[in-house]
Amino acid sequence: MAGSMLASCASIGTQSVLENNQVTAENLLQDSPLDSGSMELDLAQVDILEMTPEMRAFIDEYVGDRRNRNARLKKLIHAVMGDDNFELIYDDATRTAAETFRDRRGNCLSFTNLFIAMARYLEIQAHYQEVEIPPDWSLVGESFLFSQHVNVFLDIGADETRIVDFNVYDFNVSYERRLISDARARAHYFSNIGVDHMLVGETPQAYANFRQAVIEDETFSPAWINMGILHRREGYPDYAETAFRQALEIYQFDFLAMSNLANLYEDEGE
Description:
Distance between the termini: 35 Å
Structural class: alpha+beta
Number of helices: 10
Helix content: 40-55%
Low-confidence stretches: 6-20
Protein backbone atom coordinates (compact mmCIF):
# COMPACT_ATOMS: atom_id res chain seq x y z
CA MET A 1 0.00 0.00 0.00
CA ALA A 2 1.52 3.29 -1.05
CA GLY A 3 -1.24 5.68 -0.32
CA SER A 4 -4.36 5.53 1.80
CA MET A 5 -7.47 7.59 1.31
CA LEU A 6 -10.59 7.38 3.40
CA ALA A 7 -13.54 6.85 1.15
CA SER A 8 -16.28 7.55 3.65
CA CYS A 9 -16.76 8.52 7.24
CA ALA A 10 -19.35 8.81 9.95
CA SER A 11 -22.03 11.47 9.68
CA ILE A 12 -21.20 14.61 11.68
CA GLY A 13 -22.63 17.99 12.61
CA THR A 14 -22.75 21.12 10.49
CA GLN A 15 -20.75 23.73 12.38
CA SER A 16 -19.63 26.64 10.17
CA VAL A 17 -16.47 28.47 11.14
CA LEU A 18 -16.09 31.39 8.74
CA GLU A 19 -19.41 33.18 8.78
CA ASN A 20 -20.30 34.80 5.48
CA ASN A 21 -16.82 34.08 4.15
CA GLN A 22 -15.84 31.33 1.78
CA VAL A 23 -13.11 29.00 3.02
CA THR A 24 -10.11 28.95 0.69
CA ALA A 25 -7.34 26.44 0.21
CA GLU A 26 -5.06 28.91 2.00
CA ASN A 27 -7.43 28.85 5.00
CA LEU A 28 -7.12 25.07 5.10
CA LEU A 29 -3.36 25.29 5.37
CA GLN A 30 -2.96 28.37 7.54
CA ASP A 31 -6.17 29.09 9.46
CA SER A 32 -7.76 25.71 10.06
CA PRO A 33 -9.55 25.27 13.39
CA LEU A 34 -7.77 21.90 13.59
CA ASP A 35 -4.35 23.49 13.71
CA SER A 36 -3.22 23.10 17.30
CA GLY A 37 -1.06 26.02 18.35
CA SER A 38 0.57 23.91 21.03
CA MET A 39 1.93 21.44 18.48
CA GLU A 40 5.38 22.09 17.12
CA LEU A 41 5.88 19.29 14.65
CA ASP A 42 8.73 20.07 12.26
CA LEU A 43 7.69 17.47 9.72
CA ALA A 44 9.76 19.06 6.96
CA GLN A 45 12.83 17.63 8.73
CA VAL A 46 11.64 14.03 8.38
CA ASP A 47 14.02 12.22 6.01
CA ILE A 48 12.26 9.20 4.54
CA LEU A 49 15.50 8.16 2.79
CA GLU A 50 17.88 8.47 5.74
CA MET A 51 20.74 5.94 5.70
CA THR A 52 21.77 4.90 9.20
CA PRO A 53 25.23 3.53 10.08
CA GLU A 54 23.64 0.09 10.43
CA MET A 55 22.24 0.30 6.90
CA ARG A 56 25.62 1.36 5.50
CA ALA A 57 27.32 -1.50 7.31
CA PHE A 58 24.75 -3.95 5.88
CA ILE A 59 25.38 -2.72 2.33
CA ASP A 60 29.13 -2.72 2.74
CA GLU A 61 29.01 -6.32 3.99
CA TYR A 62 26.68 -7.82 1.40
CA VAL A 63 27.49 -5.72 -1.67
CA GLY A 64 31.15 -4.87 -1.18
CA ASP A 65 32.85 -4.15 -4.52
CA ARG A 66 31.23 -1.16 -6.22
CA ARG A 67 33.11 -1.05 -9.52
CA ASN A 68 30.48 -2.81 -11.62
CA ARG A 69 27.01 -1.23 -11.47
CA ASN A 70 25.11 -4.32 -12.65
CA ALA A 71 26.92 -6.44 -10.11
CA ARG A 72 26.13 -3.93 -7.37
CA LEU A 73 22.46 -4.02 -8.28
CA LYS A 74 22.28 -7.82 -8.36
CA LYS A 75 23.96 -8.06 -4.97
CA LEU A 76 21.66 -5.40 -3.53
CA ILE A 77 18.53 -7.19 -4.75
CA HIS A 78 19.81 -10.47 -3.35
CA ALA A 79 20.76 -8.85 -0.05
CA VAL A 80 17.37 -7.19 0.46
CA MET A 81 15.04 -9.70 -1.18
CA GLY A 82 16.98 -12.94 -0.70
CA ASP A 83 15.88 -15.56 1.80
CA ASP A 84 18.89 -15.53 4.10
CA ASN A 85 20.14 -11.98 4.56
CA PHE A 86 17.14 -9.78 5.14
CA GLU A 87 13.60 -10.95 5.80
CA LEU A 88 11.11 -8.13 5.27
CA ILE A 89 7.55 -8.86 6.42
CA TYR A 90 4.61 -7.03 4.91
CA ASP A 91 2.32 -5.03 7.16
CA ASP A 92 0.11 -1.98 6.65
CA ALA A 93 2.35 0.53 8.41
CA THR A 94 4.20 3.22 6.48
CA ARG A 95 7.82 3.66 7.55
CA THR A 96 10.89 5.59 6.53
CA ALA A 97 13.84 3.70 5.04
CA ALA A 98 15.60 3.64 8.41
CA GLU A 99 12.49 2.45 10.27
CA THR A 100 11.86 -0.26 7.68
CA PHE A 101 15.42 -1.54 8.03
CA ARG A 102 15.17 -1.47 11.83
CA ASP A 103 11.76 -3.17 12.10
CA ARG A 104 12.07 -5.45 9.04
CA ARG A 105 8.43 -4.61 8.35
CA GLY A 106 6.42 -2.24 6.19
CA ASN A 107 4.13 -1.73 3.24
CA CYS A 108 5.15 -1.16 -0.38
CA LEU A 109 6.04 2.50 0.24
CA SER A 110 8.20 1.46 3.19
CA PHE A 111 10.03 -1.07 1.03
CA THR A 112 10.42 1.46 -1.78
CA ASN A 113 11.90 4.00 0.63
CA LEU A 114 14.36 1.39 1.85
CA PHE A 115 15.43 0.16 -1.57
CA ILE A 116 15.80 3.63 -3.09
CA ALA A 117 17.89 4.82 -0.14
CA MET A 118 20.22 1.84 -0.47
CA ALA A 119 20.41 2.03 -4.26
CA ARG A 120 21.35 5.70 -4.18
CA TYR A 121 23.96 4.96 -1.54
CA LEU A 122 25.46 2.63 -4.14
CA GLU A 123 25.23 5.41 -6.75
CA ILE A 124 22.50 3.63 -8.71
CA GLN A 125 19.85 5.92 -10.20
CA ALA A 126 16.65 4.95 -8.43
CA HIS A 127 13.28 6.67 -8.68
CA TYR A 128 9.79 6.35 -7.22
CA GLN A 129 7.10 5.08 -9.56
CA GLU A 130 3.31 5.17 -9.10
CA VAL A 131 1.48 2.12 -10.41
CA GLU A 132 -2.19 2.08 -11.43
CA ILE A 133 -3.27 -1.16 -9.79
CA PRO A 134 -6.91 -2.34 -9.74
CA PRO A 135 -8.95 -0.69 -6.94
CA ASP A 136 -8.04 -2.09 -3.54
CA TRP A 137 -10.41 -1.32 -0.66
CA SER A 138 -10.36 -2.30 3.00
CA LEU A 139 -12.75 -1.51 5.85
CA VAL A 140 -11.35 0.00 9.06
CA GLY A 141 -14.06 0.79 11.58
CA GLU A 142 -16.61 2.92 9.75
CA SER A 143 -14.14 3.99 7.07
CA PHE A 144 -13.14 2.48 3.76
CA LEU A 145 -9.46 2.74 2.87
CA PHE A 146 -8.48 3.00 -0.78
CA SER A 147 -4.92 1.82 -1.38
CA GLN A 148 -2.49 2.92 -4.05
CA HIS A 149 0.84 1.41 -5.06
CA VAL A 150 4.40 2.53 -5.70
CA ASN A 151 7.56 0.69 -6.63
CA VAL A 152 11.16 1.34 -7.67
CA PHE A 153 12.30 2.34 -11.16
CA LEU A 154 16.02 1.87 -11.81
CA ASP A 155 18.01 3.49 -14.60
CA ILE A 156 21.19 1.46 -14.94
CA GLY A 157 22.49 3.09 -18.10
CA ALA A 158 22.81 2.14 -21.76
CA ASP A 159 19.04 2.43 -22.14
CA GLU A 160 18.60 -0.38 -19.63
CA THR A 161 16.01 -0.08 -16.88
CA ARG A 162 14.66 -2.31 -14.14
CA ILE A 163 11.61 -2.34 -11.88
CA VAL A 164 11.84 -3.62 -8.32
CA ASP A 165 8.53 -4.31 -6.61
CA PHE A 166 7.84 -5.57 -3.10
CA ASN A 167 4.87 -7.56 -4.43
CA VAL A 168 6.98 -9.09 -7.16
CA TYR A 169 4.66 -12.04 -7.77
CA ASP A 170 1.59 -9.84 -8.19
CA PHE A 171 3.20 -7.17 -10.35
CA ASN A 172 1.71 -6.89 -13.83
CA VAL A 173 3.72 -5.15 -16.55
CA SER A 174 0.46 -4.04 -18.19
CA TYR A 175 -0.33 -1.70 -15.29
CA GLU A 176 0.05 1.95 -16.19
CA ARG A 177 3.07 3.49 -14.49
CA ARG A 178 4.61 6.94 -14.09
CA LEU A 179 7.76 8.24 -12.47
CA ILE A 180 7.21 10.66 -9.61
CA SER A 181 9.43 13.09 -7.77
CA ASP A 182 10.80 12.59 -4.28
CA ALA A 183 8.48 15.40 -3.17
CA ARG A 184 5.44 13.46 -4.35
CA ALA A 185 6.72 10.34 -2.62
CA ARG A 186 6.99 12.38 0.57
CA ALA A 187 3.40 13.51 0.01
CA HIS A 188 2.39 9.84 -0.11
CA TYR A 189 4.29 9.24 3.12
CA PHE A 190 2.77 12.10 5.12
CA SER A 191 -0.72 11.40 3.80
CA ASN A 192 -0.41 7.79 4.97
CA ILE A 193 0.85 8.82 8.40
CA GLY A 194 -2.02 11.30 8.64
CA VAL A 195 -4.55 8.55 7.95
CA ASP A 196 -3.01 6.44 10.71
CA HIS A 197 -3.43 9.30 13.19
CA MET A 198 -6.96 10.08 12.00
CA LEU A 199 -8.13 6.50 12.48
CA VAL A 200 -7.18 6.59 16.17
CA GLY A 201 -8.60 10.06 16.81
CA GLU A 202 -5.32 11.99 16.91
CA THR A 203 -6.68 14.99 15.05
CA PRO A 204 -3.85 17.55 15.49
CA GLN A 205 -1.25 15.03 14.31
CA ALA A 206 -3.45 13.95 11.40
CA TYR A 207 -3.95 17.54 10.32
CA ALA A 208 -0.23 18.34 10.57
CA ASN A 209 0.67 15.38 8.35
CA PHE A 210 -2.01 16.10 5.74
CA ARG A 211 -0.85 19.70 5.59
CA GLN A 212 2.76 18.60 5.15
CA ALA A 213 1.66 16.27 2.34
CA VAL A 214 0.08 19.21 0.53
CA ILE A 215 3.15 21.37 1.17
CA GLU A 216 5.32 18.67 -0.40
CA ASP A 217 3.09 18.42 -3.48
CA GLU A 218 0.03 20.63 -3.79
CA THR A 219 -1.15 18.57 -6.79
CA PHE A 220 -1.43 15.39 -4.71
CA SER A 221 -5.21 15.09 -4.57
CA PRO A 222 -5.37 12.24 -1.99
CA ALA A 223 -3.96 14.60 0.65
CA TRP A 224 -6.67 17.17 -0.10
CA ILE A 225 -9.34 14.45 0.10
CA ASN A 226 -8.02 13.24 3.43
CA MET A 227 -7.85 16.83 4.65
CA GLY A 228 -11.52 17.20 3.73
CA ILE A 229 -12.53 13.99 5.47
CA LEU A 230 -10.72 15.05 8.63
CA HIS A 231 -12.49 18.43 8.74
CA ARG A 232 -15.84 16.80 8.02
CA ARG A 233 -15.33 14.34 10.87
CA GLU A 234 -14.53 17.18 13.24
CA GLY A 235 -17.60 19.21 12.30
CA TYR A 236 -16.26 21.77 9.82
CA PRO A 237 -18.14 21.14 6.57
CA ASP A 238 -17.08 24.45 4.97
CA TYR A 239 -13.45 23.43 5.20
CA ALA A 240 -14.26 19.91 4.03
CA GLU A 241 -16.06 21.20 0.96
CA THR A 242 -13.12 23.37 0.00
CA ALA A 243 -10.70 20.46 0.36
CA PHE A 244 -12.83 18.14 -1.80
CA ARG A 245 -13.24 20.87 -4.42
CA GLN A 246 -9.49 21.44 -4.41
CA ALA A 247 -8.97 17.76 -5.21
CA LEU A 248 -11.41 18.09 -8.10
CA GLU A 249 -9.55 21.16 -9.36
CA ILE A 250 -6.51 18.92 -9.68
CA TYR A 251 -8.40 16.09 -11.37
CA GLN A 252 -12.01 16.68 -12.32
CA PHE A 253 -12.78 12.95 -12.63
CA ASP A 254 -11.56 12.03 -9.16
CA PHE A 255 -14.45 9.80 -8.15
CA LEU A 256 -13.32 9.56 -4.54
CA ALA A 257 -13.44 13.33 -4.21
CA MET A 258 -16.82 13.37 -5.95
CA SER A 259 -18.20 10.70 -3.62
CA ASN A 260 -17.09 12.46 -0.47
CA LEU A 261 -18.37 15.81 -1.73
CA ALA A 262 -21.74 14.27 -2.65
CA ASN A 263 -22.03 12.67 0.80
CA LEU A 264 -21.20 16.00 2.41
CA TYR A 265 -23.89 17.80 0.40
CA GLU A 266 -26.42 15.10 1.24
CA ASP A 267 -25.72 15.52 4.95
CA GLU A 268 -26.10 19.27 4.52
CA GLY A 269 -29.51 18.81 2.84
CA GLU A 270 -28.27 20.02 -0.53
